[in-house]
């Protein structure tokens, strides 16, 4: 990969294993976890099965990303893998799609986050809500401009704080569950259809498993720590997701859960009858969770265009770093684009806009996921290992199966996103083609000019 321009500050390896793990966990576990049990309750208890399936597949995808980081421990993660395996155009589409995911998900996140802020501090009217949401986006940008170390500390602190109430409800709640609360296994329709529909809702909850790979050059010993952080962060999130959902299903009657706007608060009420502060406690956890996720995704949003710009596939301005080595142009651009989407959200129905953005980002994230998993599958088939050495037959078969499942899972992500999200996502992907053409034209023109200069120097 091409190096950054001479004299520019280079990435600093300031994220240790705890910081990288917290980045993964923080980006995966956002605000949505506090609504997920209610979101899938309408499908019946089969929603728990869907959560288990999605969790297992997400962990396998995390393992694949860890393997890929061992082979290519560079900033950009999925973009680097797609470009190295399939060429520049695939690499560009991967980077473009992932970049859309990073700032669009922040737009969706901050809309949901503001709803929990309202529980703690009522914001009357559209104006105050808008100030809080836009302000949160730019505070996340400022936190990242101060340096990756600061963003890493925020990720660790917010991850610990939001895990406390989630873990308490999830694991202590198991001792209070009642069998009758679970309701029917399949509430409506057939089992297969309900399983797929519930899984489609849950897919958005695991976006971010690749976060440590995108910032790999800022992680200490990335060949070792990115794999460990990615797998550990995803497994921890999956355990909290599944156990928490089981507890909430068993604590809150099915009919109540279907219409709940705060399922974890309802579960806390069931555990401690008469606890008047349950709503505020869970809202505070959601606000902390959302703030950490916002900072984490903002960090990631600048790394993907930076990696592509090093290869002249994104404009060179994304290479500019401040004195702390942070690619500030990417941060500012992400903040501006996320702010624009948030403003658009406030012109219509917020819940509908959030759902649309969530499904859109599920599709745009599936593009880099499928190319990354396919790259690992290709390399396994062509060189039988990351360094070209023959692998034991059992290990090789295991790696092939895991990578193939990851590919199939990401294709399932696209199917689950729905027609509208796929349609919009494809349009956004195609919107990047003129940018790719322009960047390749500039590169070709620069090569011609260099050749002409070389000929002139020879004549002189």
TrEMBL record:
Transmembrane spans: 14-34, 40-68, 89-116, 128-146, 153-177, 189-209, 230-252, 283-304, 325-346, 352-381, 393-415, 421-439
Membrane topology: Multi-pass membrane protein
PANTHER family: AMINO ACID TRANSPORTER-RELATED, ARGININE_AGMATINE ANTIPORTER
Gene Ontology terms for molecular function: transmembrane transporter activity
The name this protein goes by in its record: Amino acid permease
Pfam families: AA_permease_2
Coiled-coil regions listed: none
Annotated Gene Ontology cellular component terms: plasma membrane
Keyword vocabulary terms for this entry: Cell membrane, Membrane, Transmembrane, Transmembrane helix
Cell compartments where the protein resides: Cell membrane
């Amino acid at each position: 990969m091409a190096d950054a321009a001479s004299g520019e500050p280079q990435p600093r390896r300031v994220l240790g294993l705890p910081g990288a793990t917290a980045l993964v966990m923080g980006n995966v576990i956002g605000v949505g976890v506090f609504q997920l049990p209610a979101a899938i309750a309408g499908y019946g208890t089969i929603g728990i099965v869907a959560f288990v399936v999605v969790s297992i597949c997400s962990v396998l995808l995390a393992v694949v990303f860890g393997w890929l980081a061992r082979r290519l421990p560079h900033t950009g993660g999925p973009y680097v893998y797609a470009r190295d395996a399939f060429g520049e155009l695939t690499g560009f589409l991967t980077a473009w799609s992932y970049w859309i995911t990073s700032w669009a998900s922040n737009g969706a996140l901050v809309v949901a986050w503001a709803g929990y802020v309202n529980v703690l501090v009522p914001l009357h009217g559209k104006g105050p809500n808008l100030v809080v949401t836009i302000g949160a986006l730019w505070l996340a940008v400022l936190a990242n401009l101060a340096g990756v170390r600061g963003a890493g500390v925020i990720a660790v602190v917010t991850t610990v704080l939001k895990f406390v109430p989630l873990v308490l409800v999830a694991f202590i709640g198991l001792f209070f569950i009642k069998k009758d609360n679970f309701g029917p296994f399949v509430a409506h329709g057939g089992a297969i259809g309900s399983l797929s529909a519930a899984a489609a809702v849950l897919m958005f909850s695991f976006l971010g498993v690749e976060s440590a790979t995108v910032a790999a050059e800022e992680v200490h010993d990335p060949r070792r720590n990115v794999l460990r952080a990615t797998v550990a962060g995803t497994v921890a999130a999956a355990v909290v997701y599944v156990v928490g959902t089981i507890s909430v299903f068993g604590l809150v009657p099915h009919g109540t859960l279907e219409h709940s706007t705060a399922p974890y608060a309802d579960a806390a009420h069931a555990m401690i009858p008469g606890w008047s502060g349950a709503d505020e406690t869970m809202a505070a956890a959601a606000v902390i969770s959302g703030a950490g996720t916002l900072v984490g995704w903002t960090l990631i949003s600048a790394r993907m265009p930076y990696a592509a710009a090093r290869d002249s596939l994104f404009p060179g301005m994304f290479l500019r770093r401040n004195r702390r080595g942070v690619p500030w142009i990417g941060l500012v651009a992400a903040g501006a684009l996320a702010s624009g989407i948030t403003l658009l959200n406030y012109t219509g129905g917020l819940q509908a806009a959030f759902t649309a953005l969530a499904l859109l980002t599920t599709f745009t994230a599936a593009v880099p996921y499928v190319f990354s998993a396919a790259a690992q599958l290709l390399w396994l088939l062509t060189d039988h290992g990351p360094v070209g050495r023959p692998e034991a037959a059992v290990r090789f078969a295991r790696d092939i199966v895991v990578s193939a499942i990851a590919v199939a899972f990401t294709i399932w992500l696209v199917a689950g996103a729905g027609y509208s999200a796929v349609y919009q996502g494809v349009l956004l992907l195609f919107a990047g083609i003129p940018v790719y053409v322009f960047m390749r034209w500039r590169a070709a023109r620069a090569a011609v000019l260099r050749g002409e200069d070389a000929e002139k120097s020879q004549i002189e």
